[in-house]
């Protein structure tokens, strides 16, 4: 009877950490670039346009709550990464880790784009001319990031005898 002494490697803790980091970092990218630097929109700009100081203040609170949420997701990702790093059954893989971050960032775009832009309509990527095209582009970028990330993770899964549970 042959005994297999190899330890089972589990990538799922690393994947979970990367996805949460991707969700948080994707949100930070959106908030910093689209809300603050380019000022294309704020969290509530489609339902409460920032045309007066009180409306701008309300939108800034919405942006702050949004950024607080992305901070929480990033913090959860760091905690999960710390825990994964302490486990002997979690192999370190750049391909899986960065793939997971891409999945998380892509999921951020898809979830935020579908809920805030399409379902609730509380803001759009770039309001005005071609508004729908900008929103669709945001979703396409999200889907592309998630697919590329998933392919990177899958490539690691296929490259060896590892468990992704």
Automatic annotation (TrEMBL):
Note the coiled coil stretches, chain numbering.
Answer: none
Mind telling me which Pfam families this protein's record contains? Answer: DUF2243
Record-annotated membrane-spanning stretches: 12-38, 68-85, 97-120, 132-153
Keywords in alphabetical order, please.
Membrane, Transmembrane, Transmembrane helix
Q: Which InterPro entries match?
A: DUF2243_membrane
**Endpoints of the signal sequence:** none
- Entry superkingdom: Bacteria
Q: What is this protein called?
A: DUF2243 domain-containing protein
| Record organism | Chroogloeocystis siderophila 5.2 s.c.1
């Amino acid at each position: 009877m042959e005994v297999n002494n190899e330890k089972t490697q589990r990538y799922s803790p690393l994947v979970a950490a990367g996805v949460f980091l991707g969700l948080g970092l994707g949100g930070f990218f959106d908030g910093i670039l689209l809300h603050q630097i380019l000022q294309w929109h704020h969290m509530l700009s489609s339902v409460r346009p920032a045309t007066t100081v009180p409306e701008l203040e309300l939108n800034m609170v919405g942006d702050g709550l949004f950024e607080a949420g992305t901070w929480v997701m990033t913090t959860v990702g760091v905690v999960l990464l710390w825990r994964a790093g302490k486990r002997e059954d979690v192999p370190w893989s750049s391909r899986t880790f960065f793939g997971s971050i891409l999945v998380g960032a892509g999921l951020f775009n898809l979830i935020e784009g579908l809920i805030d832009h399409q379902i609730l309509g509380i803001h759009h990527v770039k309001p005005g001319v071609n508004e729908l095209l900008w929103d669709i582009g945001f979703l396409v970028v999200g889907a592309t990031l998630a697919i590329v990330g998933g392919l990177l993770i899958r490539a690691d899964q296929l490259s060896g005898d590892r468990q992704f549970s």
